Structures are given as C-alpha cells and as structure tokens.
Amino acid sequence: MKAKYNKKDMEVLADLWDKTGDKSLVCPQCEHKMVIVQVEPIHDAENAYIPYDTIIECTSCDFKIRAESFSILGCVKNFNLKHIEIASWSPSGSRVLSRYEHILDYELLKKLKESAELKEFLIVNKQVIQVIG
Ligand SMILES: [Zn+2]
C-alpha cells in the first residue's frame, strides 16, 4: 500500500490531471487548460494523509491558484451527483469513512462502487477530482 508520494510521483499526477480535460480545470481568465506545476509536502503531524502545497497554473496566461492536495487509498462506499464517501484506513489501521464533494463521472463511480475495487483518489481543496490507477 502506497501512502506517500515523492516528488516524481506528483509530477506523474500532474500529467494525469492534464489529460482529464475536465471543465473545472479550465482557466477562469482565458479558458485554457490548467495544470499542477509545483508541489511540496506540508508538514502537518495532525493530518492522517500527507497534504501537498500545490500550485495550479494556466498553460496559457499567468493565472494561478494555490491549493492543498492529497490522495486517499480506498473504495467507493456511496455517492451521489455531488458527494462521494470513500472507505479507507487511518495510519493506525482503523476503518475511516470520508465524505467529499467530487467532480467525477457518475458512470465511473457506479462501476467502482459495484466492484468495490481499491483505488487512489486525488483530492484538491477537499474535492475529489480524480481516480488514479
Ligand atoms: Zn489562462
């Protein structure tokens, strides 16, 4: 089970993000695509997951947003059009149910819930934006 990312992994993530072409990743100024261009781990002993200081930058103009991102390994317990519940484990091994807003595809979530497959979810500013792997 992979719980932490090194810098290289996060660069891979940035690539994935770019490929989705989701409308929430469109620059509000010029409507071009936005990508993650820089990430550093935030040292926060209280957080069960490793959050990253993340900069999401437009590929065309100079618009950028600072955000916090992290990923959770778990499976889809429940979902609707707006929210998703992810069943995962805390670092101590106890079961955790986390609820987030999401921008994921409804059909994809349906499939993931039925299969109960273990997946990694990328969360940016408390919103699930992508399923990795
Ligand atoms: Zn732009």
List the helices and strands and how they pair.
Layout: H1 7-20, E1 34-41, E2 52-58, E3 64-79, E4 83-89, E5 95-102, H2 106-115, E6 119-124, E7 127-132
Parallel strand pairs: 5-7
Antiparallel strand pairs: 1-2, 2-3, 3-4, 3-6, 4-5, 6-7
The chain binds zinc ion (ZN).
Care to give the gist of this entry?
It contains 2 helices and 7 strands. With 133 residues, the chain is of the alpha+beta class.
What features would you describe in this structure?
By secondary structure, the protein is of the alpha+beta class. It has one domain (7-132). 18% of the residues lie in helices and 44% in strands. It has two helices and seven strands, in the order αβββββαββ. The chain has helices at residues 7-20, 106-115, and strands at residues 34-41, 52-58, 64-79, 83-89, 95-102, 119-124, 127-132. Strands 3-4-5-7-6 form a five-stranded mixed barrel. The chain is flat. Mean pLDDT is 79; it is low at 1-5. Bound molecules: zinc ion. Zinc ion (ZN) binds at residues 27, 29-30, 32, 58, 60-61, 63. Residues 27, 29-30, 32, 58, 60-61, 63 line the site of zinc ion.
